[in-house]
Structure formats: C-alpha cells, structure tokens
Amino acid sequence: MQCAAPPARRITTQDVQTVVFYSTHVPLDCTDARLINHHAIDLRDAPQIAGELWLMLLDELTSAEASQARCSSPNATATAQAIGAGVCLWRPEHLFAAYPGLVAGLNTSSAYANETDYHMRRYYWLHASLMLWHARYAETYSTARFYWRMEPDVVFSGRLSSLLNRTAADPSDLLLHKYQSEAKDMRPRGTDGQLKRPQDFFPFWATHRGTPLLANVAPARRLRALVSIGRYSRRFLRLLETFYWKRGIVGFEEVLLPVACTAAAANPRRFHGRNCSLSALSSGAGLRSHRVATHFQYRPVYPCADFLAALLQQTNELWHPVKDRECIADHLRLPPPVRFHE
C-alpha cells in the first residue's frame, strides 16, 4: 500500500481526534477530486474540530490503466498534493495478505460464493481496509478516537466540519444511518400494509442463516444498516479485527457491522470484556439518533438539483445516493481539479 500524508496541516497528528476517510476507487472522478479538496480545506480551517481528511483509493486497474487516470496519479504523493488530503492507494491483495483468516472465511462462505455481483462482493471486505491505514498510522495518530468512512454518493447539505461537530459528543462505537431488525424485515406485510413480494425482502438474512456470524446472536439483536457512511471507534475496529476478520468470520457488511456490535453488547465476556455501543444518524430501532439523514435511502437516486436546494438552505442533512455531483462543485465555485491526463 502506498500512502502520502496531507500536504498541509494546522494541527499535529497527535491532536487529531477524528479521521475522515473518503472511500472510492481509481480512476478518481474529477468532480470528486474538487469536492474532496473542498472538504479537506473545511476541516483544516476548523482546527477546533480536530479532524483530518484522507482518501482511501482502491486500485484494481492495471498499471497502464491507472497511469491514464485524469484526476489521480499512480503516485500517492502527487495525488495528495493535487487534492490537499492524505491519500492511500491500496489493492485487494494488500488486504488479503494482512488478513489470511479473512481470505479463508471468504473461501468457505456460501453467501460470498453465490454473490454474482462483484460490486456487492466487495462489501464483504471493504471496511477492513481501514485497518490497513490503522496498522501504518495508529501510533502517529495515537489520540484519534473515531474513523469515519464515507462514499462519494453521500453528500451533506452543510460543512463536513458541522457534521463532525454535531456528532462529536456521542461516544458510540458504531454510528450508521439507521438500523432495521431481522424480525421486522421478515414481517409479511410492509409499512403500507400490503403483502411483500419476494424481491421486497432483504436477501442477506436468508443467505447468512446458519453462518458463524449469526450463531449465538438472538433474532432481536440481528440488525442491518446501510454502510455508505459510518463512524467507527478504534475499539470497534479492533473488535472486528480480532474476533471476525482474523478468525474468518465474514458477512455482508450491512449485516456484519451492526451484528458484531450488538453481539458484543449482549455478551462482553464472549469478546474478552469488549463492549460495544451503537447509535444512528436517522431514527430507527429505538436507538439514539442524530436525525441528520432523512434523505437517505438505497434507491432511487436523488437528482443533484434536489440536493442543491437543501445545500442553499444549509439544512445540515446527509443525502444518499446523489450520483451526479457536478452541480454541487459548480455551485460552490470550486476550482478545476489538477489533471494528470486529458
């Protein structure tokens, strides 16, 4: 894995309390390069937030393909200089070399084997990439309490520093969009009272039934949540590393992450005394909620213009998914990105 630190700082690494990881892949979208630079400057200009932005850039291209990317470089330092944030270029083999137990678990997982969509298969191991960064920088950022991971189609109608400030006092180990229980998912009727069709059921409860992930977890504690944005305590990530990834206990991350936390909360002794607490960005499952994600769903996609109306009012809400983000960068009058190739 190739990494480069942010090119400019106003606080030392020992003062950073929160690291925000913008997670995407090579080639970096040029609009996202503009937005990342904007968010990095926002955090740098708000030193009281004690946050720092990094780009985790998954590279699955050949070296020849990667070298032709317009707004990112195969050289992490060059990309960091261009976007004003820290950068790590990583490949799946880096992750699998670090966690052979994870590989063993994937190789024996029927759910993973039967998943034909490669994009969905990534969501059995994407979050473990945070520990690649942690392995290299944990001592340098020894006071960092939380790691955020957000994907490009999650946008916030305010300053990113405002989101961090709003959630800073929440000590929860796991903070995701909102949670839904298996019991509620399996009800035959939806919220509209109509009978559900087969395609209306969340499919991963069925594919994970009988797996080590759900063993010894009561149905009431089996929760799932979207993971396109989330905040994770260092304690929670170490719990995942020790009791799941290293032991080959795998699962679709919308299930794995909440279930790992509720399992530890229910029986800390099983996890060598490690407990876990969780809260939500939107209301659901009777948990503490920050109520900042009312326009957050799996689909359909929100038009950029709809989000822009909220941004103009500074409503300070998370929106997902917003796939076309160029109107945001243009409205903010962000400078054009550094281009490595045309």
Pick out its properties.
three-stranded mixed sheet, globular, alpha/beta, 35% helix, eight-stranded mixed sheet, 342 residues, 13 strands, 15 helices
Describe the structure.
- This protein is an alpha/beta fold and 342 residues long.
- The protein has one domain (2-331).
- It has 15 helices and 13 strands.
- The protein has helices at 30-44, 63-66, 76-83, 92-98, 100-107, 110-113, 118-122, 129-137, 160-167, 182-185, 204-208, 234-245, 253-266, 304-312, 326-331, and strands at residues 2-4, 18-25, 51-58, 86-90, 146-150, 155-156, 174-176, 180-181, 223-224, 229-233, 278-280, 295-296, 318-320.
- The strands form three sheets. Strands 1-4-3-2-5-10-7-11 form an eight-stranded mixed beta sheet, sandwiched between helices. Strands 6-13-12 form a three-stranded mixed beta sheet, with no helix packed on it. A two-stranded antiparallel sheet has the order 8-9.
- The radius of gyration is 20 Å and the shape is globular.
- The protein starts with a strand and ends in an 11-residue tail after the last helix.
- The mean pLDDT is 94.
